[in-house]
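Q: What structure does this chain adopt?
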Amino acid sequence: MAHAKASIGTTNYQTAIVTGHHRLTADEGPALGGKDVGPGPYELLTSALAACTAITLRMYAERKQWPVTAVHADVHFVREGDKQHIDRVLTIEGGVDAEQKKRMADIAERTPVTLTLKGGLEIRTTLA
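A:
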């Protein structure tokens, strides 16, 4: 399954991430003391949901042989006081009708990352 390692040194708050054979950099913006050399943690979270949504809907359209030319998932993490939620807006391009688009929106509610976020999950922390 998925695995990532993150390491940070003394440069606020630049973090090296290795996942699979990919290397990423995460950071915070200047307002939080970082240098904005990479996405912040919540940007990575929304990126994961957006990517999973787009990939799943592309797979679904291919399996159904629907003429979808592009899928866009615009995902925003919103915090209002002590409440938080995610807004997701889908744009589906191609020769698909309103009913097919509605079906794809229904499928978006059941993508793997969507279900994980909606269901919550236990996080077990230990010291090495």
